[in-house]
Design brief:
This protein is of the alpha+beta class. It contains three helices and three strands, in the order βααβαβ. The protein is globular.
């Protein structure tokens, strides 16, 4: 049996997401944490979270998404729908 798998920094890919609030009161701290995990600068994560809390829909390029399912799940738990937008 080999060693457990670990996340290697820098192995994620940039993904463009359309984010929109799904609840009247999304959890701002959870939103900021999820965005920060995607390597968004703290000030940008804070600004995007504020816009989402105000009810806006936001298009954002997340620089490094290690696990799309986990990222989208974390945002869903915070009350935010995350739809990846792929360009042809």
């Amino acid at each position: 049996m080999g060693p457990p798998e670990t996340m290697v920094p820098g192995t994620g890919a940039p993904v463009r997401y359309l984010l929109r609030p799904e609840t009247e009161a999304p959890d701002g701290a959870m939103v900021r944490a999820a965005l920060a995990a995607g390597l968004l600068p703290p000030s940008q994560a804070r600004d995007i979270a504020a816009r989402l809390l105000a009810g806006e829909t936001v298009l954002v390029m997340v620089p490094q998404v290690e696990d799309r399912d986990a990222f989208e799940r974390d945002l869903a738990l915070a009350g935010i729908a995350a739809q990846p937008c792929f360009q042809a």
